[in-house]
Amino acid sequence: MDNITKDPAYNAVDPADFPAMLDVHRYGERSTAFDKIISATHDHFWDPLDTKYIDFSLPFDIENEYLVNPELNGDLKTAIGDKLDEKNKIKLANLDTLWTMSSILHGEQGALSLSASLCHILRDPGAQEYAANQTREEARHVTAFTRYVQARWGKPAKVGPALGDLLNELVLSPLVWKKIIGMQMLVEGLAMGAFATFYKEARDPLLRQLMQLVMTDEAFHHKFGKIWADRTIPKLSKAEHELIEDWAWQVFQVLLYNLGSPEQKAWMYSACGLDPVWCQQAFMEAMTDANIRTELQEATNIFRVLIKTLVKAGIITDRTRGNYAAFIDMAELHNESDRMVGDDIAEEGIRYLMQLNGGKGFMTPSLIAAE
Q: For residue range 318-352, what is the model confidence (pLDDT) as tens digits?
């Protein structure tokens, strides 16, 4: 199986071949591609166990208040919402937020395990150090989302089959390109869109603060994927590009149609006294492609951010452009800058962390410096 390596910074060894890591020549063959991201790590340090950064004891009336703007809840826009009084609408919407926070938590665990797996196979010491840094940052995300879920609900919901299967494939894959595209670009792109949406729409101040702190890290993880794309995509053969392009489209479809599908949330409907089978039918009747396209127009829509990531990376060509055009204005995306929707939020968070950590408040945010 070909790793499709076009730059030595992404050379990999078999995970069982540790002697390859002891090659005396390897230590001196370090790429400088990731040095700025590595050096900026301290600028966005935060500790989820330290109330100086975030206090998970902050209360919220989860039974009587929406955690997130209810306009974002798809179920409430269907016949499902018509069957519920206000109390149960709040319950359903907040359980849906539990589902999303649980999916994010599982995704962070996947990112943690995947980053650790990159440490085992990346031959370049610079790339390996970056992966080790990301592993540490993903670990604090797991801690932070665990604490948030515990504070609001007690325990997370089980991972859905669509997300669980994808994370399993990415973590266990021996292919560097699949790990980087799948996690650093697709899943991290999805995450940046989701975090930006929650930052904008959360009514729980604790949730809003958590999103910004996590985004100060995730913006750098997303840039690691961008570096790979800049150094790899232009050098691909036609067959290699088509392989990557088709796989990305396949993953996009899995995420789009299954990540929040009603059949994965039967427990949620039952908890609100609704028939899960009827709810699934009501949801599918309302969810047309036209509806999806309308929601994708929002700049912070999670899938719009994901598509933009693929466009700016050069992965989407005319072969599959029409597939995505069914949901979004592709010409509009092409004309946009490389800035991601969450970058401004992340940079504001970095400024805050630099001041909190004793840095100079007037310093240039390291997110820009790492370009």
A: 999 999 988 788 888 878 887 777 788 999 999 99
Please name the amino acid found at residue 298: E
Say how far apart CA 167 and CA 368 lie, in whole Å: 30
Which residue spans within 12-131 are E strands per DSSP?
Answer: none
Q: pTM of this prediction?
A: 0.91
Look at the alpha carbons of 179, 183, 255, 298 in this order and tell me if their dihedral is positive or negative.
negative
> Is the alpha carbon torsion for 8, 220, 196, 169 positive or negative?
positive
Sign of CA dihedral 131, 136, 142, 145: negative
Q: Report how far residue 159's alpha carbon sits from residue 171's, in angstroms, rounded to the nearest whole number.
A: 15
- Segment 240-298, tens digit of pLDDT: 999 999 999 998 888 877 676 778 889 999 999 999 999 988 887 776 656 655 665 56
Reduce the DSSP state of residue 360 to 3 states and report it: coil
Contact partners, residue 76, CB within 8 Å, separation at least 6: 70, 84, 89, 92, 93
The CA distance from 359 to 330, in Å, is 41
Q: How far apart are the first and last CA of the chain?
A: 32
Buried b (16+ CB within 10 A) or exposed e, 133-143: bbbebbbbbbe
3-class state of residue 29 by DSSP: coil
State the Cα–Cα distance between residues 328 and 334, nearest whole angstrom: 11
How far, in Å, CA of 186 to CA of 310, rounded?
8
Q: What tokens does 48 get?
A: 């989820």
The percent helix, strand, coil of the chain (3-state, each to 5) is 70, 0, 30
DSSP 297-350: TSTT-HHHHHHHHHHHHT---HHHHHHHHTTS-HHHHHHS-S--TTHHHHHHHH
Q: Give Cα 56 distance to the centre of its chain.
A: 22
